[in-house]
Amino acid sequence: MTPVPPAPAVPTATYRLQLQPRFPFEAAEAAVPYLAALGVSHLHLSPVLEAVPGSTHGYDVVDPARVRDELGGEAGLRSLARTAREHGLGLVVDFVPNHMALSPRHNRPLWEVLREGPASPYARWFDIDWDAQGGQLLLPVLGRRLGQDIGNLKVDGDVLHCHDQVFPLRTGTERLPLPGLLDAQWYRPVWWRLARTELNYRRFFSISELIGVRVEDPEVFAATHGTLLRLLDEGVVDGLRVDHPDGLADPDAYLRRLHEATGGRWTVVEKILAADEHLPPSWPVAGTTGYDALRRVDGLFTDPAGAQELLGLYRRFAAPPADRGGDWAPTVRRAAYQVVTHELATEVDRLTRVVSRVCTASPDPALRDHAPWALRTALRELLVRLEVYRPYASTDAAAVVTEKAAAEARAVFTVPEEAHAVDVVRDLVLGRTGDGPGHAEFRARFAQTASALRAKSVEDTAFYRYVPLLSANEVGGDPGVPAMAAEDFHAYCARVQRDWPATGTVLSTHDTKRSADVRAAISVLTQVPQRWAGVLSEVTPAGHGAPDPHLVWSAWQTFFGLGRAAGERLQKALLKHVREAGLHTSWTEQDAAYEAAVAAFVAGGPCGAPGRLVTGFRDALAPHIRANVLGAALVHLTMPGVPDVYQGTEDEYRALVDPDNRRPFTPLEASSDKADLTTAALRLRRRRPEIFGVSATYTPLSAEGPGAAHCVAFVRSGQVLTAVTRLSLGLAEAGGWRDTSLTLPPGRWADALSPEREFEGRTLVEDLFTRLPVALLERADGD
């Protein structure tokens, strides 16, 4: 048997597998030969540590010291690693440092905290404010108010039962009458609706079932990372994807500690960067998980003029108010106000308590005599004006919490003297008031609250309200500027190659709201906005046949992107859409009549007879959808960075928001153009890693002729050339490529999919694209 070389320290490409009880380590191991043949260097596994039983994602960790039994335990993971090694593959795992599941039955450290309170050695693990709620940890686990649900609370020995949940009893309290028994615990079970305003523990965003972990504490870091570090030391695992570092108290310090503990293993972080934001240069990581690349690739295949025209059509069709979907910036601001005052009210209250303590204890008279309501108002007004997730200790906080934001926040106050609270808060965030007691805690909690607010207000609310072009409403995206010029894309790639050459890049993930191929189809609508408006007028009867035109617009775009699909998948995705939007119904205040009307519309519209007209329209645009799908895939696989291929996306993959995109993986059984292209690119990356690696080069290549603007091309290290078709419908309407040419760098260039085809010198683009609307060429005559 020919020896298989070890997996490289820096992946050439990773393949994301969503592990779950229906797809455990054993199933992943069976897929190894297929994935090795595909050409990746590493398997990228979703979280592997012990999670809530039945979890389909693994981010609800309950025991970071154990590999998850439902997946096959540590023995199963080791077996997968051995088989992967035999095929030349390594393992990258997704790690969750920010939170654990609030599930006492399964989370033993939390169980001990509930039983022993702040004296428990595990109390330092969890981010709990014991000074609030009378020293009891508030647990929002009751379906109704306590008075209505108390009959479902039962004591059995030293355990309290509540429906299917169990909680430990404080020693010596088990014989007390129930009301007194509840008062005597270190926790207090309450109606779940109180989570919005009364919680005294940090959570993941607004998800009360996930409790924040204090990994900034060295002992907690050691306890929660021990198993992961051992697996790295023993060669079972090779690299890491760090989930949501923005939730941590000090991402800078955490990543330095992690880098030292792992010996500098390849690590990427799930950091969502705003359009003009850069990753902190001091972070000792390879880069991000790649949402910044996703935004650029998608934008490259979006027609800017058509997107603007589509926006106008959307405004006339749906007639949304400016701050409820009509304009991007006002929609984000309104959503932020809603989230900060409702969903994150408890986080703002805790932040207010912290800043009030800091001001009261400060020897600086300028910090004294500020009413809590004024400080709360200042916090809220500054938070909603942040345009990135959060500030960091290693970067300039003044660039995040700007003077412009402060001026706008001051204007909200009717009494100028009370507006000084804004300056107090901002100065504390910026570290201008020294570093007295509580200052560091305030800065950390302000940043943590800011990141939760940004995620909930933008990705989980505004993305579902402002919907002129759904393909732009993706994680890390900027719906207000959906298109990207080719020259801007090239500039981005050059910067990545220079600054973060080993960063991750993605097009589809477990968190994307629509897979890359669904987005690629939807973006074609920017090339036919008027024709799309005509189709909508045909399938939409008077009165729209639905509860509101906003839903109609979103539903038909979703259906167009997905194509022929099971009605149940579309129903679930659109129900999630309207609940996230929160305009007529929501997850916590559901309007049954509205949701029934949505279901009826979907069944009778997209999933009924009118759907056939849209399907026919989509079929007529198939060549242009194909150009977008293949173009985006090839650019992703050959641009700077380490591409992550989401399970199944080596073939055309149409999926909507989770859980639709988290179905168990099945290896591809038949070939396709996209599969052939993906395999060729991945194998080339694995065979010649130096061409794409940290010392590689990226050189844009310009076409000449009437169709030049529709050809995007670049060369990697003088050895591999990528060329793709951009905005193919506009190209066809303008007369096609005609004599458009691309002058290749010196030498002979072979088609990676058909090596017998060679090109040299000035080449007609039409000749490059005879079979596919893209071309991947490799230098055929050496250096």
From TrEMBL:
Give GO terms for biological process.
Answer: alpha-glucan catabolic process; trehalose biosynthetic process
SMART domains documented for this protein: Aamy
Q: Name one GO molecular function term.
A: (1,4)-alpha-D-glucan 1-alpha-D-glucosylmutase activity
> What are the Glycosyl hydrolase family 13 catalytic domain coordinates in residue numbering?
11-685
The record's InterPro entries line, in alphabetical order, gives:
GH (IPR017853), GH13_cat_dom (IPR006047), Maltooligo_trehalose_synth_4 (IPR013797), Trehalose_TreY (IPR012767)
What domain of life? Bacteria
**Name of the protein in question:** Malto-oligosyltrehalose synthase
